[in-house]
Amino acid sequence: MSFPxxxxxxxxxxxxxxxxxxxxxxxxxxxxxxxxADTGRVVEIGAGTGVITRQILAAGVRPEDLSIVEMNPxxxxxxxxxxxxxxxxxxxxxxxxxxxxxxxxxxxxxxxxLSIPEPVQHNIIKGAFGLMVDGGKxxxxxxxxxxxxxxxxREANGLAWRCxxxxxxxxxxxxxxxxxxxx
Length: 183
Ligand SMILES: C[S@@+](CC[C@H](N)C(=O)[O-])C[C@H]1O[C@@H](n2cnc3c(N)ncnc32)[C@H](O)[C@@H]1O
Known about the structure:
By secondary structure, this protein is of the alpha/beta class. The protein has one domain (2-181): Vaccinia Virus protein VP39 (Rossmann fold, 3-Layer(aba) Sandwich). Helix content is 33%, strand content 23%. The protein contains 7 helices and 7 strands. The chain has helices at 2-12, 14-17, 25-31, 51-58, 73-82, 118-131, 151-156; strands at residues 41-45, 66-70, 87-90, 104-109, 132-142, 159-163, 175-181. A 7-stranded mixed beta sheet has the order 3-2-1-4-5-7-6. Strand 2 (66-70), helix 5 (73-82) and strand 3 (87-90) form a beta-alpha-beta unit. The protein is globular. The protein starts with a helix and ends with a strand. It binds S-adenosylmethionine (SAM). S-adenosylmethionine binds at residues 16-19, 22-23, 45-48, 51-52, 69-72, 75, 92-94, 110-112.
């Protein structure tokens, strides 16, 4: 059910989805590999059909501690049905900073960030770090060779970054990154 829905929505909204297939389970596991018992609340943005969502919960985050942000109404319907105890928010990730959430330790993003214009990227990243506690981590994958946040946006938000493990078993292979505020 989820895969055909993903492909159909890709045909209808190629710019906002901007991926040829949902993430593999291997990529989703890498994306959640920094979650620990101390992470606190997690916000997932660009959840699509919920591949990464499932791994966030499998990593031990309680459903009530997971907020899911997705702008596509069809995906939201599926997400609400699959994860009835999570807070599924049908909204643009640009409004992240307005969410009344506390103790957010991590934002995990499946957004096609580098396909998004820089001013919009900036709003999303500023909002994500505004939402998180000190030391919060923003996790984002990319298919390309460069960090998945534009240099000007990284600079404006004072971000440092490191790579996690490259995932070859994904279409196409992908590299997850962790971004934090520079000390
Ligand atoms: C590449 S898909 C990733 C789906 C899933 N996380 C995965 O890894 O398979 C990107 C998702 O981001 C969503 N999206 C794109 N721009 C968005 C925005 N500004 N706010 C919220 N969701 C957005 C799309 O609707 C789509 O579901």
